[in-house]
Every structure is written in structure tokens, then in C-alpha cells.
Specification:
InterPro entries: Uncharacterised_BSP. This is Plant basic secretory protein. The protein has 209 residues and is of the alpha/beta class. The protein has two domains: 105 residues, Metalloproteases ("zincins"), catalytic domain (Collagenase (Catalytic Domain)), CATH 3.40.390.30; 102 residues, no CATH class. It is 51% helix and 12% strand. It contains nine helices and four strands, in the order E-H-H-E-E-E-H-H-H-H-H-H-H. Helix 5 packs across helix 6.
Length: 209
């Protein structure tokens, strides 16, 4: 478990009060790490490089982003988003922290992985942690790497078809090689194009799209 730090840049912001009224920061960050490690790694292959995670609550546009070095990560979280999510603040805060914590630990094929897959894996972990927000809907997105929940639901379908651990192995396969769509063929026996086509057919059969 990495060391956790917290920086609050605006104590008077309503989002700050909502944050502390709904979560214990240390517990929420620890829970996020456990979710990430449970879904993307095993005890034998959890990466040990992340030594410190700093959560920064600040007034900024958007929702959140993750930055930092190989050993020290920073999650910047928009206070305005917390304020706008007041009616379901606890789950939204935990969900966003889980998504961003994935970015602290996941592999990215030495920087060559499509951004949509990076974000899709992060939302896939959030989805499996039971923290998907009410507005998420399966079947959105016109391509497999549209990102976020669109790709997350597709990855869940792949996992259901190919077995528990498939997406974990996908992440592990992005550790030390350049990205290629062939990684899906290696894992599932089918090309990414065939997987996407079959997924869309399944959505139509189920009346989702």
C-alpha cells in the first residue's frame, strides 16, 4: 500500500465540505487501491513502484486527472464536480478515485496503448467495483476504443465470454511491449474486429441498441 497525502486548495468551497462529509480520504484511497489490485493484478504481480499517492482537491474544470512520476502519483479532483454530485457524493467520489487510481497502476504498452483502451480499463475496474454512476448505459460508442464506459462494457463482455482474468491478463500484456491489436487475438482467439462485431450483435439480440 502506498503512502497517501492530501492537499486541499480551497477549504471554503462547497465541494470540500461535501467531500469530508461523505468519505474518509485515507479509507477511500485505500479502498481504491484494493479494487485496482484485485481486478488488474494478483498478489504475485502487483507493481511495487507506486510509493506515494497525493490527492489534490482543487477548483478546476472537468472531473479529475492523474499525473506524476513512476513512483509518486497525483490525483487532481475537481471540487465543482463533487459539488455537482452532492446527491450521490459518496459513490461518485469513490468511483472517480477508483478510476484515477487505475491510472496510477495500470500498464500502457510503453506509452503506445490507445487512450480509449486506457480509459476503458479504468472504467471497467470502476464498474466491477460496483461504482458505475446511474447515467452509464451499455451500447454507447461507435467503435471498440471509444473509451470510458463504452469500452468498459465491451471489456466486461469479453471477460464474460473468455473467462475471469482476461482483462487482468490484457493489462499485464501491456507492461513491456508496444501495443498491437494482436493482444486480443492472443488472449481470446479472436481479432478485436470480430469481438466488436459479435458484441454489437449481442447488444442487438438483447435489445440494448
Amino acid at each position: 500500500m502506498p503512502n497517501f497525502e492530501l492537499r486541499v486548495e480551497d477549504l471554503s468551497h462547497p465541494g470540500t465540505r461535501i467531500f469530508f462529509a461523505n468519505v474518509n480520504p485515507e479509507e477511500a484511497l485505500r479502498e481504491a487501491v484494493v479494487s485496482v489490485c484485485s481486478w488488474l493484478f494478483t498478489l504475485q504481480d502487483v507493481p511495487l513502484n507506486v510509493q506515494n499517492v497525493r490527492l489534490v482537491l482543487r477548483n478546476m474544470p472537468g472531473v479529475a486527472y492523474t499525473t506524476g512520476s513512476y513512483t509518486h502519483k497525483e490525483i487532481h479532483f475537481a471540487l465543482s464536480h463533487i459539488e455537482n454530485s452532492a446527491t450521490r457524493a459518496r459513490d461518485e467520489i469513490r468511483g472517480v478515485l477508483t478510476h484515477e487510481m487505475v491510472h496510477c497502476f495500470q500498464y500502457n504498452a510503453k506509452g503506445t496503448c490507445p487512450g480509449g483502451l486506457i480509459e476503458g480499463i479504468a472504467d471497467w475496474v470502476r464498474l466491477n467495483a460496483g461504482l458505475g454512476p446511474p447515467h452509464w448505459k451499455e451500447g454507447r460508442g461507435r467503435k471498440w476504443d471509444a473509451g470510458y464506459e463504452s469500452t468498459a462494457y465491451f471489456l466486461s463482455w469479453i471477460e464474460a465470454q473468455s473467462g475471469r482474468g482476461t482483462i487482468r491478463n490484457l493489462n499485464l500484456g501491456l507492461e513491456d511491449r508496444q501495443y498491437s491489436d494482436a493482444v486480443f487475438q492472443d488472449l481470446t482467439g479472436s481479432s478485436i474486429q470480430d469481438l466488436w462485431r459479435l458484441y454489437r450483435l449481442d447488444l442487438e439480440t438483447r435489445g440494448v441498441v
